[in-house]
Amino acid sequence: MNNNQTMKIRMEAYDHEILDKYALEIVEAVTKTGAMVSGPVPLPTRVERYTVLRSPHIDKKSREQFEIRTHKRLIYIYDATQKAVEELTELMMPAGVEIRIKA
């Protein structure tokens, strides 16, 4: 991996507290290696709403609504070295957090 390498890490999760905690762990691990970090930048939350009938037979007007919120964060790493990449691979990823890394 060359010096002056830029990495983009995009994280998604349903629980914003776990997402923020893990984003902070990534930032701390990468800054120890001397790389420049920008973020975590909160991206717009995707809200999916579902409406369900409470009773399938009589009460058509009685409905229940559910929603799922997907929280997103973006982290940029500038001047990433091989040591920074090794630190990222050694981190334990919690369940429920999806990570996409683009170099």
Automatic annotation (TrEMBL):
Residues 8-102 form the Small ribosomal subunit protein uS10 domain. InterPro entries: Ribosomal_uS10, Ribosomal_uS10_CS, Ribosomal_uS10_dom, Ribosomal_uS10_dom_sf. It comes from Uabimicrobium amorphum. Gene3D superfamilies: Ribosomal protein S10 domain. HAMAP family: Ribosomal_uS10. Involved in the binding of tRNA to the ribosomes. Belongs to the universal ribosomal protein uS10 family. The lineage of its organism: Bacteria, Pseudomonadati, Planctomycetota, Candidatus Uabimicrobiia, Candidatus Uabimicrobiales. This is Small ribosomal subunit protein uS10. Transmembrane segments: none annotated. Keywords: Ribonucleoprotein, Ribosomal protein. The gene is rpsJ. GO terms for biological process: translation.
